[in-house]
Specification:
The complex is a heterodimer of chains A (249) and B (388).
Chain A: E1 2-14, E2 17-29, E3 31-36, H1 43-50, E4 58-63, E5 68-69, H2 75-81, E6 83-86, H3 98-105, H4 112-117, H5 122-134, H6 150-163, E7 168-172, H7 180-193, E8 198-202, H8 206-212, E9 215-220, E10 223-228, H9 230-235, H10 237-248
Parallel strand pairs in A: 3-8, 3-9, 6-7, 7-8
Antiparallel strand pairs in A: 1-2, 1-4, 4-5, 9-10
Helix pairs in contact in A: 3-6, 5-6
Chain B: H1 5-8, H2 10-29, H3 40-65, H4 73-101, H5 110-122, H6 140-164, H7 169-188, E1 200-201, H8 214-240, H9 242-253, H10 255-260, H11 265-291, E2 293-294, H12 301-314, H13 319-337, E3 344-345, E4 350-351, H14 353-371, H15 380-383
Helix pairs in contact in B: 2-8, 3-8, 3-11, 3-12, 3-13, 4-5, 4-6, 4-11, 6-11, 8-11, 12-13, 13-14
Classes of the chains: A alpha/beta (249), B mainly alpha (388).
Chain lengths: 249, 388
């Protein structure tokens, strides 16, 4: 395990509100990590910073063996460097088929002229089949993504992330709105993905996090409150005070 | 081009077939090559309509597929028209001047010829000097190059500035409208070098073909316009098929998602914007020799707004929809405003369609937007089974 992503001393302020306050997180490869915290703890903002959507006021975000700073890079450059992101609300291209959605995400040259010359290959088709199998959508490849159920859309988006073949997956509330059965399957997909990559899951649901059986980072008011196994952090008095104490009481 | 492309897109084949049948019918009925049932002026109208269909499919690609509501594409249509108009006007005036100076005892110097042409063309705005932008006007090849380069470069520079600042939605629409308005206002000035509000005229007279009848010239332009529309249609259908179309429509539906997939969204928008501008320029270069005159009013914002209305009524996101919309609405428009439609006497008030056509068009636009968002082209969905 080597450090893949290192966020150190990052702060960001929106109109005087400090969304992230001197945040430092390290993610290794491979690793499965859950990030939890009450609303407004800065979970989504943390993802926005890593993926280039939000520029921090101070601090460092360093990536990979070569210690590249992600701060000067655009969203598409960061995505091509190997960071995939799943949004909180499932965002797939509803007018297009499941296959087209996956094909668009597949790791290939991204420039307009290479895309214009792009031809379907047997290799690409095989990769799409493999991913569809992984996310359980093999029978739905020709359906338009808009027809899928909520859970299937979530899986399709995770599949699109896998198709990008990223080294780091940032997954925002994958289990939101899912049935118990769907959650279980989502857990399996994420655990398998984390065997070879770094996967960071932002989640509200403690049961879901427990099933992931991984290291947990608790955020509060934009900084790390506690870090460790779920049992460890749930026993931490400060965590109980700010988060668990409120929701479980 | 992939050989199976046409077979994956049967609508392209149907469109080409329909266009071929239409073109043959008009040819057979024309004065120049057929039985003379269709008048030369109507052939010109049909030829111009084909050019409007060509810019409409360009608009459909940029708006219906890529989601950029450009309200300035007629600026590219107009600059294409001006580019070819400069050669037409220069070459024809040169012929007239040469003929009138022929009988003189002392042969005129090149400077005298140039001055005489300048006076002929720019006398109307009180000048006889050739502005710098006319430097290539004597060369058909170079001006044909300008038909592509001027709209292309204008779109490239404008698009680069707008897209890199991530201007989207209605703000971008307003910017494109400002662009075409600024260009139009600039061209209205007498010292713009393009004859101010007089514009360029006499464009229906093709230099070198003085002895050919307008009936024949109109038919040739009609046929060339049909070929251009067919080529443009196949080009756009091909570009929008496959992965490019996937990414472009993804940008329309969720720009941020495409960006996080690693695509540089701005490059794609710029590609689509510039490509459609070039096609719009070509459409304009074919249109104005048939119209005979181009002036700055042609590229006023209202023209580009009409373009959006055509595409909306015809059906966004499907190329044949844009063709149907442009042909249907523009022909109907010339029928209503040209006094073709009979006035309706209500007893207390008489509806004159020259005044009321715009109201009818506006109401239709609102109704289509509210009740038939797929437009006229959407009717084909009922005829064709949904492909699996």
């Amino acid at each position: 395990m080597s450090t893949l992503l290192e966020v150190s001393g990052v702060s960001v302020t929106f109109d005087g509100f400090r969304a992230i306050n001197n945040l430092s997180i390290q993610i290794a490869e491979p690793e499965l990590r859950a990030v939890i915290g009450p609303n407004g703890a800065g979970k989504t903002t943390f993802m926005d910073i890593v993926t280039g959507k939000t520029r921090p006021d101070e601090g460092q975000v360093v990536w990979g063996e070569k210690n590249i700073s992600l701060l000067g890079m655009s969203e598409s450059q960061i995505a091509n460097a190997g960071i995939g992101r799943k949004f909180q609300k499932p965002t797939v291209f509803e007018d297009q088929s499941v296959r087209q959605n996956l094909a668009m995400a597949l790791k290939n040259p991204r420039g307009p002229f290479s895309v214009l010359r792009h031809r379907k290959t047997a290799d690409g088709a095989a990769k799409i089949e493999a991913i569809a199998d992984e996310i359980g959508l093999t029978d739905h490849l020709t359906r338009s993504a808009g027809e899928l159920s909520h859970g299937q859309k979530q899986w399709l988006e995770i599949g699109m992330l896998l198709a990008q073949d990223p080294r780091l997956l940032l997954v925002d509330e994958p289990a939101a709105g899912m049935t118990a059965q769907e959650r279980e399957k989502t857990t399996d997909i994420l655990k398998r993905a984390a065997e070879t990559r770094a996967v960071v899951v932002v989640e509200h649901d403690m049961e879901f996090v427990r099933r992931l059986e991984c290291k947990v980072t608790v955020l509060h008011e934009g900084s790390v409150l506690a870090e460790g196994s779920l049992d460890h952090v749930t026993k931490d008095q400060s965590v109980i005070d700010v988060y668990l104490g409120r929701s479980d009481a | 081009m992939h050989k199976s492309f046409i077979f994956h897109n049967p609508s392209v084949l149907w469109f080409l077939l329909a266009l071929a049948l239409f073109t043959m019918a008009v040819t057979v009925l024309s004065e120049a090559f057929g039985v003379g049932l269709v008048s030369t002026s109507f052939v010109k109208t049909l030829g111009k309509t084909l050019c409007l269909c060509l810019i409409a499919i360009a608009m459909d690609v940029v708006w219906g597929y890529c989601g950029i509501l450009s309200l300035g594409h007629f600026a590219f249509f107009g600059t294409g028209g001006y580019a070819i108009g400069m050669w037409l006007m220069y070459a024809r005036t040169e012929g007239i001047v040469a003929a009138s100076l022929e009988g003189q005892a002392i042969p005129p110097t090149p400077q005298e010829i140039s001055d005489a042409i300048g006076t002929q063309i720019f006398g109307v705005v009180g000048s006889s000097e050739f502005p710098a932008i006319w430097a290539f006007a004597d060369s058909l090849v170079l001006q044909l190059l300008m038909v592509v380069l001027v709209p292309g470069l204008l779109a490239l520079v404008f698009g680069w500035l707008a897209f890199r600042s991530r201007v989207t939605g209605v703000y971008l629409s307003i910017l494109t409208q400002a662009m075409t308005l600024a260009l139009s206002l600039y061209l209205f000035q007498n010292d713009s070098g393009l004859r101010g509000n007089n514009g360029l005229s006499g464009l229906q007279n093709i230099p070198g073909f003085e002895d050919t009848s307008q009936a024949t010239i109109s038919m040739v332009f009609f046929l060339v316009s049909a070929i251009a529309l067919a080529a443009g249609y196949v080009l756009f259908a091909w570009v929008m098929s496959g992965k490019m179309g996937s990414v472009v429509q993804g940008i329309r539906d969720n720009e941020a998602r495409v960006r996080f997939l690693g695509y540089h969204v701005e490059s794609y928008k710029l590609f689509v914007f510039t490509l459609t501008a070039v096609i719009a320029g070509i459409a304009g270069a074919l249109y104005y020799p048939q119209a005979g005159i181009i002036n700055p009013a042609e590229i006023a914002p209202i023209a580009s707004i009409y373009l959006a209305v055509w595409v909306a009524i015809g059906g966004r996101g499907r190329l044949y929809g844009a063709v149907i919309g442009a042909a249907f609405v523009s022909l109907l428009s010339s029928w209503f405003t040209g006094g073709g439609a009979p006035a309706i006497n209500l007893g207390f008030y008489t509806i004159q369609w020259t005044d009321w056509w715009l109201v009818l068009l506006g109401v239709s636009f609102v109704c289509v937007t509210l009740f038939f968002p797929k437009g006229i082209g959407g009717l084909f969905d009922y005829l064709v089974r949904k492909p699996s």
